[in-house]
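Quick check before the chapter quiz. The format below is the same one you will see on the exam, so make sure you can read both the input and the output lines.
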Amino acid sequence: MQIKESELILNPNGSVYHLNLKPENIAENVIFVGDQDRVEKITKHFDTVDFQIQKREFKTHSGTYKGKRISVISTGIGPDNIDIVLNELDALVNIDLKTRQPKVKLTSLNIIRIGTSGSLQHDIPVDSIVISTHGLDLNAMLHAYQINPVTNPDIEQAFIAHTNWNSDKGRPVIINSDSSLEKRFESSQVFKGITATAGGFYGPQGRVLRLPLQDSDLNHKIDSFNFNGLRITNLEMETSVIYGLSKLLGHKALSLNTIIANRANGTFSKNPGLAVENVIKYALERI
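Here is the expected output.
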């Protein structure tokens, strides 16, 4: 069935609407960063950069690193932006933009998120790296899709019971990372655990300025959750949606988190720029 123009919007030059990209502009290895200024911090390590474009907060550079072609895309902040980026990336590789028909042979992208995050555990210090074995979706965006095939009901139900989750909120969803990417990127240098994904920075992450929280004890409930030794290590705003949409669309995804704040200890990195540089080098050597 042909996809309508109102559903898959293209620019006059044939590129996808928000990213302003054409299929030939991207590689099958894609790095996501939130901050558009971080794109150059990665591509400065490349041997070549042969494509650059930006529209709004979505900046894309494509080039090669040690002979491997890689694209780096800034997504901006939050689950809604991930929904845009992942759907448009998938359209670039799995929909014929001229006929507006899904392709018979589908392409699976390797998607690596390099992001900053806050640790919820005393023993995961600032400047460390956390691999997200799972994404815990606390923002309800994924419920717009038929997500049952990719969820973990047993862990979800244990989390709901542990936190006495308010039924007025969307049901939490937990999605695994891609196991092959996880094995490739793991080492004795990094921590592993569940990454919780909130839909905002202040109230949704337990920060109080002038507005009271629906559950002022939620962060403590989150960091004390344990399911057969699996604990929630950190809190940010993108991972669960990357994992959920990637699973549903047939892509492989892994999230690498640079810990620049420790919420349990109240500490913040003395040199967050160096911490980000370290995780960039760690990722590039394993892609």
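If your answer matched, good. The two ends are 36 Å apart (CA to CA).
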